[in-house]
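Example record for the data management plan.
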Amino acid sequence: MTALEEQVALEAGAAAEREPAPAQEVVKLTVVRSRTHRVLHVVLEGERYDPNTPRHVWLPRPMAMMFRRGMEVLGREMADQPRVYDYEGDPGHPDKGRKFPRRAGEW
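Corresponding structural encoding:
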């Protein structure tokens, strides 16, 4: 392989790496319980809670004590981890970003 071919291969590989991953859909989830300070157990609409294979929402800050059973949150499924969602905020005001509840159980 010549130096020019190596350079072209490196540029092609770097260009392929720069392509963004497809954006995952934001879904509305219902809180079932808080697992830790940063993790909520949630269910999709119409789904039963199964403690053996729960869905998780990962919070960016340790604020799980602000969420109560039955609250709805927005989440975006993580591409590399099935059944794990990244917290996206309040479903009533999705335009406000990753807003946390004002008081425990209240948006």
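Summary line stored alongside the record: The first strand starts at residue 26 and ends at 34.
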